[in-house]
Each structure stands twice: as structure tokens, then as C-alpha cells.
Amino acid sequence: MTDNNLPNIGAPATRALTNAGVTVLSDLASWTEDELLALHGVGPKAIRILQPALAEQGLALRASSVGVGKVESYLSKVVSPQRETLDAVRATLRTVLPDATEDLKYGMPTFLVNGKGVAAYAAFKAHCSYFPMSSNVLEAAGDAVAKYSVSKGGLRFAADKPLPVTLIRKLVKLRLAEITATGH
């Protein structure tokens, strides 16, 4: 798509956007995904069509601060040393995924790209965990995760020692490649 026109998202979604004053892709840059989904007629399918069209134009939906607030609330209840460890993991993920949104999914802080979970993390009594949102990612990581306790969906690490930046980068890269290849 080389123009700023809205892609074909179906009549109900198009009507809803038009009624809200959105007639071209650039109008969407001031909207969050949640705000669009709140419009009667706009559903997840329309969002899945709109996001790549926006990206082709170098645009994106406005980041939602609601999810960040939920993450901040979660982290405010985490005790030391897990809190500092998770803050470091979060900072790394923000650097690695600058365009991602943050929200709570399955009760854990999660980074999402185009609505798909890429990385989650959580504090537990005696450890912290990282969840790449896919068991295939941990298998593909191989030796990079060998020194950690790995389950089907996540890996445990010390409550007082964040994961290395290089490992987080590798896990994110593997997850993004999986999303590109499979769509999930």
C-alpha cells in the first residue's frame, strides 16, 4: 500500500471509523488499540489488518498507558530483591522492543508486538521467571538456556540476578521470528 487510504476492513468497521472521524491511516496514529476496539463494529480482525497497513506508512497506533499502569501496579507489590531484578529485565525488554506495548497477560507483565505476546516475566517467592510466550522458543534457544531451570513455558532465574541482556535479546529474536513465520 503506497497511499494513506484505509485498507478494506469490512463495512461495519469502516463505518465505525468514519463516524469517529477516521478516514485515512494517518488519523489512526492518535488512537490506541483499546480505543479502536471500543468502537462498535471494530474488532480484532480489523486491528490485524490496520496494523501492517500503518507500519507500511511508517505509522503506528498510539501506545496505551492503561497496560503500563497495570504493570506498574504489579511491580509495586513485588518485594526486594525480585523487584530490582524484574526492573532490570523490564528495562532490557524496553530497549530490545522499543515499539512494544506493555500489559498484564495471565497475571504477568508482558511485552506485546502487534497484540502478540513476545515476552513476560514474573516474581515468585524464591526466584523470578521469564516466559517467551512459546515453548518452541526455549527449545530453539538450546545451550543458551542450559544453565537455567527450564519448564515447558518458561525459565527460572535467581531472584537477585537479572537475565543477561544477550540472552533476552536471543529469546526475543527467536520469538519474533516465530511470530513472523507462523503468525502466532
Please give a handful of descriptors for the protein shown.
184 residues; alpha+beta; Aspartate Aminotransferase, domain 1; six-stranded antiparallel beta sheet; 16% strand; elongated
Brief write-up:
The protein has 184 residues and is an alpha+beta fold.
- The separation of the N and C termini measures 24 Å
CATH topology of the largest domain: Aspartate Aminotransferase, domain 1
- Classify the beta-strand content into a percent band: 15-25%
Number of strands: 6
Derived structural class: alpha+beta
Q: Report the helical percentage.
A: 40-55%
What does this structure look like?
With 184 residues, the chain is an alpha+beta fold. It folds into two domains: 11-56; 65-182, Alpha-Beta Complex (Aspartate Aminotransferase, domain 1), CATH 3.90.1150. The protein contains seven helices and six strands. A six-stranded antiparallel β-sheet has the order 1-2-3-4-6-5. Strand 2 and strand 3 (116-123) form a beta hairpin. It is elongated and about 55 Å long. The two termini are 24 Å apart. The mean pLDDT is 91.
